[in-house]
Amino acid sequence: MKLRFESSVEEFRQEFLAWLADNRPTAEEMAADPAVSSAHCPEWAKRWTKRLFDAGWLVPGWPPERGGRNAGAHETLVYLEEMSRSGVPRTTNPQGLGIVVPSLLDYGTPDQIERYAMPLLHGEITACLGMSEPDAGSDLANLKTRAVRDGDTFVLNGQKVWTSGANYADFCFLFCRTDPDVPKHKGISIILLPMDTPGVTVRPLNEIVHPQHPDLNEVFLTDVVVPAANLVGKLNDGWAMANGSLAHERGMVWLMSVIDMEMGMQQMLELAPSILEALPEQERAVAADDVVRCYIESHAVRCLGYRGFARLVKGGSAPEQALMKLFASASRQRLARVAAEMRGPDALESKPQRSRRVGTLEDYFGIFGSTISAGSSEIQRNIIAEKVLGLPRG
User: Fold this and answer.
1) Distance CA 255, CA 81 (A)
2) Residues catalogued as catalytic
3) Do 381 and 272 fall into the same domain?
4) Per the confidence metrics, is the pTM higher than 0.90?
5) Is 158 found in the same domain as 40?
6) Residue 115 domain-assigned?
7) In 50, 216, 233, 273, which residue has its Cα 20 to 30 A from 138's Cα atom?
8) 17 is in which domain, residue-wise?
9) What long-range pairs does 110-118 form, CB within 8 A, spacing at least 24?
10) CB neighbourhood size of 150 (10 A)
11) How far apart, in Å, are the Cα atoms of 301 and each of 203, 211, 225, 305?
């Protein structure tokens, strides 16, 4: 086992760190105009996105004309590690950059790429992802939002829910049903929906963590008319494209899980000494044991992720990737609980903010979404049972 990168990869890391030190937005810039939604792009974020694109640091693995520098998998990995550790968001529209743009580059027409993907890469517009519905959360194939062809247009009717960033997004990458008479996974299509189209209503959902700046929304579509040219890929081929879209999201979910776990662990280690010292002896022993368990799990998360990544780079299958999100999200929840319990009543004193800190009630409540987003833990267990272990469907 070699737990280090080649010298060329480390040189790549240092090149990026040097560029980042000279070009990153300041903490004052970000604090003065914070991104309050996953599709909100303040002026500093627009400049930052364009700066990354022009320097080839937005998506290093892509060619220069798309914001990259033709970097390899290992280089991309260390870039994402350092970007996550820097405290500077790579983008304030993660679903746009991580899911929508790659999907458009894979399946979109040249005009769609020019009108939607490239402006998003330049930081000029943002996107939301219209997948979940009241009766179609983890079961995407059960969606009911309809798109009916009418000459050169589609007429859309239906509802989406939990749509992150819909209250700020310029357009929606909308999954809808275009053929109700075939098996449900065969009649789905994807349509690009400008959010200012008549008939689109967005209603933010109250959130316990960020009540003043909700990110989750309901989206209602009432006789919404869009050009037929906004169809992405082939008609009724949305299920295959959905798998491709989610593959883009899940490809690096494990790394984000690793970084979040390690950053949370570091914050806990900063809190622990003074808190443990103030506890009665018996409580101190239990709390110390909990901290050590979290520390061990943070290392296990990284090792599991690296093992799966190494298999994928070599072209093999990686069952670790299926296990990664399930294990990491559960471990991060335990860390949040332990830290909040250690702080006791002090956990209630922190003022809500977008940058959560371990040991606050805000962090404890907020982290529960990690077992739902990018695929719920319940569905992930089914996938592991059937696809990894080969067990029969229950």
Assistant:
1) 7
2) 249
3) yes
4) no
5) no
6) no
7) 233
8) 7-92
9) 111/229, 112/192, 112/230, 112/232, 116/171, 116/192
10) 10
11) 37, 31, 46, 6
Residues 263/85, Cβ–Cβ less than 8 Å = yes
Contact 189, 147 (CB under 8 A): yes
The answer, yes or no, to whether residue 279 has pLDDT greater than 50, is yes
**Residue 169 CB-density burial (10 A; 0-12 exposed, 13-18 middle, 19+ buried):** buried
Contacts of residue 208, defined as CB under 8 A and 6 or more positions apart, other chains included, come to 365
Radius of gyration of the chain (CA): 22
Of 346, 226, 342, nearest to 273 (Cα)?
Answer: 342
For the domain that residue 15 is a member of, what is the CATH number?
A: 1.10.540
Q: What is the distance between the alpha carbons of residues 70 and 48, in angstroms, rounded to a whole number?
A: 20
Asked if residue 246 belongs to a domain, the reply is no
What is the tens place of the pLDDT at every residue in 136-182? 876 788 999 999 999 999 999 999 999 999 999 999 999 999 999 99
Q: What is the pLDDT of residue 354?
A: 46
Q: Kindly state whether residue 279 falls inside one of the protein's structural domains.
A: yes
Q: How far is CA 57 from CA 15, 46, 91, in A?
A: 11, 14, 12
**How many separate domains does the chain show?**
3
Which residue, of 92, 114, 141, is where some domain finishes? 92
Question: Of the residues 236, 262, 291, which one is the last residue of a structural domain?
Answer: 236
pLDDT at 2 over 70: no
Q: Tokens 């820097």: give the residue.
A: 86
Section 89-93 average pLDDT = 94
CATH of the domain at 331: 1.20.140.10
